[in-house]
Design a protein that fits this description.
Blueprint: H1 4-8, H2 12-49, H3 61-67, H4 124-133, H5 137-142, H6 146-188, H7 191-201, H8 214-221, H9 227-237, H10 244-258, H11 270-277, H12 283-292, E1 308-309, E2 314-315, H13 319-369, E3 378-387, E4 390-399
Antiparallel strand pairs: 1-2, 3-4
Helix pairs in contact: 4-13, 6-11, 6-13, 8-12, 9-10
Length: about 400
């Protein structure tokens, strides 16, 4: 029989069975912890990236019980040590949260609301080109103030004035003076008289030297395009060759075709002569030569016996030629005015165009930058009220500086 001490001590098979049970329980707890690790890692990842609505995982009672051994099985009946739970590693999950797109910040400028008293927007480029074409048109396009309209009238008036003066002086008066001095020459200059004196002096060897513009004179008279004209031109220039036989054969044909003595005798016929001279190859050059050079002095009707051909010069004077040259100078002065008038027109176009562009720009700056005018700071208040049946009125005005 066993003693009481032997009866109270557990047998060896009982101890082994207890150890096996404890080992199995710990293994089951470890497996449960491994199964719960992904959920805990996801919860930790949510807390790490700050996902709205995520909260720390809260273990349920079943998890708590499965994650640690029973309190009665923490130690063996023989007094073994407490076994701590195995730590669960946290596995970071990839970032799957979509970030909000970037927002471009644009600087905004507040444009003052347009006041109808200030007018409307005007395009500076359009104003510039309008005034460049017609001075003053750009200022009228900007408009909105009496000063702009006044400048438009000024530029347009300047354009009209310069245009009228240009036409009056360089067209009307010039043509009038040209007709006047040509009519004067038709009355007092005879190509026949000139040819008579020239032919008489042509035998001299120095005749060519003292008549340098004889070729230009022949070119002004004769059109050399036709065979007839070429022959007449040859007869005209042959006067410069000191060969009486050659001169008498070809020159006489030229004299017969261009002799105008019949227009002066017995009665002068300047109108008929003017018609004849208008058919010359270059009438402008002809009228210029007979008044500009001394070699044609013999053709003027008042030169007379004063004309003398020498080896070095042709002497002679003519009051009619002097008057003729004065008329030509007056006509040329009118012609030269054309440069001044055209220059003034160009300057007026450019000045008007620049002024129109600046006016439009200033107008727009007043509109959008809020530049105050005097009437923007002028305020008027008034009213009408009745007190005991009697009308009372008041009016107040203020101007801020």
């Amino acid at each position: 029989m066993r003693s009481k001490a032997d009866q109270s001590a557990p047998s060896a098979p009982t101890v082994h069975r207890g150890l096996a049970f404890t080992t199995a329980l710990l293994s089951a707890a470890f497996l449960v912890c491994l199964a719960a690790a992904p959920a805990r890692a996801q919860s930790s990842n949510d807390d790490l990236y700050g996902v709205p609505g995520s909260t720390a995982p809260v273990a349920s009672p079943a998890d708590s019980a499965a994650s640690r051994p029973d309190s009665g099985a923490d130690s063996l009946s023989t007094g073994s040590a407490v076994v701590a739970p195995v730590p669960v590693p946290i596995i970071a999950q990839p970032d799957t949260v979509k970030r909000a797109p970037r927002v471009r910040v644009t600087r905004e400028t507040t444009i003052n609301p347009l006041d109808t008293r200030r007018g409307e927007y005007r395009n500076p480029k359009k104003a510039l080109f309008m005034s460049l074409i017609v001075p003053g048109l750009g200022q009228a396009y900007v408009g909105q103030t009496a000063f702009n309209y006044a400048r438009a009238a000024f530029y347009f008036g300047t354009e009209a004035t310069l245009g009228i003066l240009w036409y009056q002086y360089t067209v009307v008066k010039y043509d009038r003076e040209v007709k006047r001095y040509r009519r004067y020459a038709d009355n007092h200059f005879s190509a026949g008289r000139y040819e008579d004196e020239a032919y008489a002096a042509s035998a001299a060897t120095s005749f060519k030297d003292i008549n340098p513009y004889r070729t230009s004179y022949c070119e002004a008279l004769i059109n050399r395009e036709s065979s007839t004209g070429a022959g007449l031109y040859g007869g005209c220039v042959n006067l410069l060759i000191p060969d009486s036989a050659n001169v008498s054969s070809s020159y006489q044909n030229f004299r017969a075709a261009y002799d105008d003595n019949t227009f002066f005798s017995p009665v002068a016929d300047p109108a008929g002569l003017s018609v004849k001279r208008s058919t010359f190859a270059d009438p402008v050059e002809f009228y210029s030569l007979i008044g500009s050079y001394q070699e044609f002095i013999a053709g003027w009707d008042d030169a007379g016996s004063s004309v003398v051909y020498s080896d070095s010069l042709i002497a002679g004077t003519s009051a009619h030629r002097d008057s003729y040259n004065s008329m030509r100078d007056r006509a040329q002065s009118y012609s030269r005015m054309q440069a001044w008038f055209i220059g003034g027109l160009v300057i007026n176009h450019i000045a008007s165009a620049l002024d129109a562009a600046l006016t439009a720009r200033r107008n727009n700056r007043i509109l959008y930058e809020g530049e105050a005018r005097w009437y923007d700071n002028f305020d008027v208040h008034g009213g009408l009220a009745f007190e005991r049946g009697r009308p009372l009125t008041h009016l107040a005005a203020s101007l801020a500086f």
